[in-house]
Specification:
Largest sheet: 5 strands, antiparallel
Structural class: alpha+beta
CATH superfamily of the largest domain: PPM-type phosphatase domain
CATH topology of the largest domain: Phosphatase 2c, domain 1
Radius of gyration: 26 Å
Order of helices and strands: EEEEHHEEEEHHHHEHEEHHEEEEHEEHHE
Helix content: 25-40%
Number of domains: 2
Number of strands: 18
Number of helices: 12
Strand order of the largest sheet: 9-18-17-14-15
CATH architecture of the largest domain: 4-Layer Sandwich
Length: 511
């Protein structure tokens, strides 16, 4: 078992069988170091009698049969769904803690994680050995906590289980996590980033428990919302034309039944003629009519109506879109196309229920929508993908009068051309809808980490949390260079109690 990014102090171990039978959990292995050490830098020629660096040939034998890898059980054989695998992870952390407690850190590679619905979890750990082949168990001074190699192995194994193609290394796994959120199990990105950088000194099970509690939190009552909108042009995007400089528009509508609709539309103009704003406004107007009409349109119908409205309004402009429907029972659905994003922020301690404020014990954030870009589509096939990360493959419009099959980019997509995801919200949640200008990376830092840091800072202040978060995201975009329009629509989810009945309240804000 090899891992290209876990090579610090690791042996090159070969010959490990992939058995497909049920076995009890076994976290130790016995290995036999044979003779015939060879130079690591040898290019295939016979090893000299003496070399500055020698590496042993290692044979590993396992006292029990190995269960399937996560990729085999989840992706190749389809014996468990990705969501079911995510629900089983708390049991894995306990076995990982057992392995680290007995063998010490640096005993994991990505093939170590194994599972079978009947046999449960199994960790095929690779302990450390002395030069004479003697097993080295964990010494008292060694922490019973994962080191970098272990953390990266866990992340690679988890993404490998749900990705369309195997992950080449941990960096590839993180890239796929960022682009295919919403297709992967919701919250997997938050779990993996916490595995890499979170506090795990007291054990993986204890360190991951608050995140699992947050991800599985339920609410049986009704919810209400308070929504806040901020938008900015971006100093480097501005051309001195206030009417068309900002091509982002956004809206909120609340219906009689308490259903809340939110949408952010990021207009795209090829030559700067303002047609992107025309496209975004046409989509917004049609969305507003659909949101407040009798009955609720299905996602397919809504998509076709929005696309047709944009094509009627402009032959050159188009728009990315992210929309969310939140029912009064807390059930929500997000629809997206392009590179606008939806994120969910949730307090780790259960958070406020009907009051403004924040969480004293921290937050967790996860992304709800995938990226529809040329680069994302190519990355599905190869880790060596190249392409414009801002070149969209799905969006509303794509040229008036053209058929769906003739529109640019449609050949790279399967399905209806948009993504739909259902998810629950609970009181205390912050739902963030944003154009791509508001979610840009700061020195490559994951945007979820940025959201958590901002929410934690604002929670310690006296500022209204949702309004301050929306303003902060737009100001942050300008501080990072102001390269694009930045729009943030933040929805605070609150304890609704008994919803008041009345006429439809339609609040629409256009930036």
């Amino acid at each position: 078992m090899n891992d290209s990014d876990e090579n610090a102090g690791a042996e090159d171990v070969k010959g490990v069988p992939d058995a497909q039978v049920t076995a009890q959990v076994q976290v130790t292995a016995k290995a036999q170091v044979t003779g015939d050490a060879q130079a690591a830098v040898d290019s295939g020629e016979e090893a000299a009698d003496f070399a500055g660096l020698v590496v042993p040939r290692v044979t590993v034998s396992w006292p029990h049969s190995l269960l399937p890898t996560l990729r085999q059980i989840c992706w190749e054989w389809r014996k468990i769904t990705a969501d079911e695998l995510l629900a089983e992870l708390p049991g894995l952390w306990e076995v990982i803690d057992t392995a680290l407690g007995r063998l010490g850190p640096n005993c994991l590679v990505h093939e170590s994680l194994r599972y079978d619905p009947l046999g449960g979890w199994q960790v095929a750990a690779l302990p450390r050995y002395g030069v004479d082949g003697t097993l080295r168990l964990r010494e008292r001074r060694d922490p019973a906590a994962p080191w970098t190699r272990d953390r990266r192995a866990l992340v690679r194994a988890l993404v490998d289980a749900v990705a369309q193609r195997p992950c080449r290394d941990t960096d590839d796994a993180l890239l796929q996590l960022g682009l295919y959120a919403g297709e992967f199990p919701l919250g997997l990105d938050a779990l993996c980033h916490h595995l890499l950088g979170g506090e795990l000194r007291r054990g993986v099970a204890e360190g991951m428990a608050p995140l699992h509690d947050a991800l599985t939190r339920c609410w049986s009552g009704r919810v209400e919302t308070a929504c806040y909108l901020e938008s900015g042009v971006g100093s480097r995007k501005a051309r001195g034309r206030p009417r068309s400089d900002n091509e982002d528009v956004a809206a909120v509508a609340v219906t009689d039944s308490g259903t809340v609709w939110l949408g952010v539309f990021d207009g795209v103009t090829g030559d700067g003629d303002g047609s992107g704003l025309d496209a975004a406004e046409a989509a917004l107007a049609q969305a507003g009519r659909a949101w407040t009409s009798e009955g609720e349109p299905g996602s397919d119908v809504l998509w076709r109506e929005l696309d047709a409205a944009v094509r009627r309004a402009t032959s050159t402009g188009s728009t990315a879109v992210v929309m969310t429907r939140i029912g009064s029972d807390g059930r929500a659905q997000v629809l997206s196309a392009g590179d606008s994003e939806a994120w969910l922020l949730r307090p780790l301690d259960g958070g406020p229920t009907g009051r403004r404020g924040g969480s004293a014990s921290g937050w967790v954030a996860w992304r709800l929508t995938p990226a529809h870009t040329e680069f994302a589509e190519r990355l599905r096939e190869t880790p060596d993908a190249h392409g414009h990360k801002s070149m969209l493959t799905s969006y509303l419009g794509r040229g008036g009068g053209e058929s769906e099959a003739d529109r640019p980019g449609s050949e790279g997509l399967e399905g209806p051309g948009f993504a739909v995801q259902e998810f629950p919200v609970v009181p205390g949640d912050l739902l963030v809808l944003a154009s791509d200008g508001a979610t840009g990376a700061d020195r490559g830092r994951w945007f979820g980490t940025e959201l958590v840091a901002i929410a934690e800072e604002l929670s310690r202040s006296s500022r209204p949390l949702g309004a301050a978060l929306a303003a902060n995201l737009v100001h942050r975009a300008e501080a990072l260079g102001g390269w694009d329009n930045a729009t943030a629509l933040v929805c605070e989810v609150q304890d609704g109690g008994v919803l008041k009945q009345g006429s439809t309240r339609d609040r629409t804000a256009t930036a």
